[in-house]
Amino acid sequence: GNSVTQMEGPVTLSEEAFLTINCTYTATGYPSLFWYVQYPGEGLQLLLKATKADDKGSNKGFEATYRKETTSFHLEKGSVQVSDSAVYFCALRSYSGAGSYQLTFGKGTKLSVIP
Amino acid sequence: NAGVTQTPKFQVLKTGQSMTLQCAQDMNHEYMSWYRQDPGMGLRLIHYSVGAGITDQGEVPNGYNVSRSTTEDFPLRLLSAAPSQTSVYFCASSYSDRGGYGYTFGSGTRLTVV
User: Fold this and answer.
1) CA distances from A58 to A4, A64, B99 (A)
2) CB contact under 8 A, A89 and B97
């Protein structure tokens, strides 16, 4: 079946530090890959996406590259801010059987950025 | 443009009670789904719908029912609440269940069953 594995948190960084959150996946076919962000007390928001190998998704200074050879989609940001403190979810959409395409989420990585 | 609206935001139920969590979207999305979020478990799919009149089970459907009589609404019914159903519930919608279309999430319903 499809699955997503994220690095476990929590991750605590100082402001302006470099961020990497690792994400690897197992999927049938050619999945689309996503990063979602959840701020405290809110629902998830789409952060960025990539739909084919070697695509780079980017938004708000975050970026991730779809690496089919390593089945990875690591999230990076060059300089984090306190406002980036949130939980980040890696997700994939692929065929999951019986005509169904479902979004499968990782367990989430909590990021705390301190001034 | 309201997006996905979930009600209520908070609810406390007694074991055995039933209730309906409401979800409505105004984006004319065909695909709608319900997830539950539990600590350390990520999000798990309960039920989903690819269009009005069509619903199907996800990963953890037991104890929940859904219906989709209109494109806009996708209510989730708890038939007989149990403490194991204490969770945060999210409704999400998308233009399609395929490809690179992202999901739009509601702000969630925090349910406690005592």
Assistant:
1) 20, 7, 18
2) no
Contacts of A69 (CB under 8 A, 6+ apart): none
Of A89, A105, A107, the CB nearest to B40: A107
Chain pair A-B, CB pairs under 8 angstroms: 54
Split at pLDDT 50, 70, 90, the class of B34 is: very high
Helix (H, G, I), strand (E, B) or coil at A84: helix
User: Kindly report the CA angle at B39 between B33 and B45, in degrees rounded to 5?
Assistant: 20
pLDDT digits (tens, 9 = 90+) for A72-92: 999 999 999 999 999 999 999
What DSSP state is assigned to residue A82?
A: G
Q: Do A44 and B90 make contact, defined as CB atoms within 8 angstroms?
A: yes
Distance from CA of B103 to the nearest CA of A (A): 7
pLDDT digits (tens, 9 = 90+) for A29-63: 889 999 999 998 889 999 999 999 999 999 999 99
